[in-house]
């Protein structure tokens, strides 16, 4: 059982969230490009160094759930307790899509789509997710696949997220894409459900 976070960790997490919320409000009010890190720091009543101790770049302020999403994806592989891989990933991608495609996130999506810097950052972030996911799949001894298969399936899963997030009906999109991913996974190995 994990111990609850201590006072220092809670304070650090609260500061991080305050910075992210402040940055997002400023970006949506004034536009992404005109707002600088100094503006965010001043509005959040923290030092510029404090902003950078929580976020590596201005772009990272927009994607404040980045590390959490990456961690949850790899956990979907490592913590699935006998559940077949693709359904476990489908469930996690569904949760990510629900978060990112929620109606209140539409202005943020528009801001990202309108900014080359944010689109580039998001592209590199999704590539990193795919690499982390491929590494987690390859490391699981129950999922005896080649590194190429692990990387391909990880990329398919991350692409499914991007396709569904931008679809008019994200749930239907995931429902269409994931059976194809599962068929490809099974075609290149064994049916985990049959082996259980």
UniProtKB/TrEMBL annotation:
Pfam family, one: TetR_N
Protein name: TetR/AcrR family transcriptional regulator
Keyword field: DNA-binding, Transcription, Transcription regulation
Domain HTH tetR-type: 13-73
UniProt KW Transcription keyword: yes
An example Gene Ontology molecular-function term: DNA-binding transcription factor activity
DNA-binding region positions on the chain: 36-55
Keyword check for Transcription regulation: yes
Organism of derivation: Amycolatopsis mongoliensis
